[in-house]
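FORM 7B: Structural annotation worksheet

SECTION A. Query
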Amino acid sequence: MYQPLIKFCPHPAIITQVLIIFVLTMKQSFLGVIPRPFRAQGVAVALSIFVRALLNFVGLAALLPILYLILDSQSIHSNPYLASIYERLGFESDTMFVVGVSLAMVLFIIIKCGANLFLYRFERDYIYNLYRYLSRNLYIDYFNRGLSFIKSSNSAVLSRNVNVVCYTFVAGVLRPLAVICSEVALFVMIFATILAYSPLAAVLTIAIFIPAVWLYFTLVRKRVNEYGKRENEAHRQKFRDVVETYRGYADIEINNAFPRMLSSFEQNVDTIVEVGAKNATVSNLPHIFTEVGLAVGMALLVCLSVGLESGDMKILFGVFAVAALRLMPSIRAIMGSWTSLRYNRYTIDIIRDANLDTPTQMEDTSAKRFGFRDKISIKGLSFRFEDSDHDTLHNLSFEIAKGEKVGINGRSGAGKTTFFNLLLGLYKPTEGTISIDGEPLRAENRRKWQNTIGYVSQSVFLTDSTLLANIALGCEESEIDMARVERAVEMASLGEFVRALPNGLHSRIGECGALLSGGQRQRIGIARALYKQADILFFDEATSALDSETEQSINDSIRTLSEADKELTIVIIAHRESSLSYCDRIITLK
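SECTION B. Predicted structure
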């Protein structure tokens, strides 16, 4: 006679050990990658995963009474537990008892599925909130690292890390990890039950599934990790090729470079297809391994059960079949999730490198201004790039008074733009100081200083948006002061151009201002600085890429601005001295 079903459940000590092992595995493997704000909740998610596994196990156990009734109809009265339930609930016929047990089982499964869905939603929300946190904070982290880091990095790589890698980490690493933990816990519970009920069936389970899992892991372990790295690199290169092709269309077309760009693109696509096909094959292997294992296990069970009584054989075979059919998708899920985890393992290093333990805050975002009243003092200023063995700028010292118009020139490579980036607070001096009205420029007051200045570069940054949004860059449309915009447009000599546009200030200007001329882009940069009501304007070779007539027109506009506001300070870099003719003095960098 087989033992009552209640004795088949795992001992509480076994469940506790599984829970401890599960939590420790999560802690040791991924605690260093999960940001601190999510670790406490991560423990709760780990517990919910275990509870889901327990619910799945109990749901499986709920099927066994039905199995008993199907395989042995006499168990209603011969089994003391079933007989006790029959008598206490006052059933009058075996048929009504079977119907009642069946309905109870269905109701329990519905409740179990509802609880499972609730816990799954809790886990899902955790994972996607973590994605939101990682993507946002990585975006901020890269920005906060400053201009030196941005210049030394590939923008396509940074973009992919922020937009793709963070999602891949939560969907391709954490979610599979949760599946593995849940299914492993369920596997242990089912195996413990089979072991308590029939050591023979337990030995068969181990003999069938463990070799299959070992063989699978042996075959694919190293390959899957390499596939993930290769695919990630191919995606990065492909993304870079596309961005550079469209950004440099004119040069690529004139120099007939598109065939080479296309060749590189196709090579990367071929790599992605090749790796994807191999990974798809690997992902299908768990189904094959587990199905073959199940067939072999049932065949062995039939062979080993020769000599057993028919009733015993039916129940033993039925219990093994139910357990094996549930173990098969569990093992398949474990193997598939492990493959996904290995395939996307490269994301862990990228997330860890960002060090997002605490929420990454934007540096000071206030609108406070410096209140420039007197002068900018540069004393003993030196700067050296990290990968250089000599100073780009060495021991610079001079002053720029409020209202002064100062020109900066010098040969190429003399450090003019580097000097500007130091004045703008984008680089940190290696030695020396930059002071505004006696207060040194530091990280703590950099935002206030940048709120005080306007900057027009040789290649003005323009977003693929409207003319209005580009002039009032960084402002919500509802907060834009239209009267101030219109004044800035007129002062930058853009009024006639804007009035000729069908949608005026609300006209779109294309990616990087593709629908504008070079002079119009520069004037938008000037209008942006004027809308900002900057006390100091920095022009970094703002006219060097323009034709002589347009350059003279822009210079005339700058001169007009200078004459209209005697307190406006202007610092301008230019190669040609004619562009600096209205300056009070010219400083030459050597």
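SECTION C. Observations
The beta strands are 375-383, 393-401, 405-410, 431-436, 439-440, 453-456, 536-540, 569-573, 585-589. The CA atoms of residues 110 and 533 lie 66 Å apart.

SECTION D. Sign-off
Analyst initials: ____
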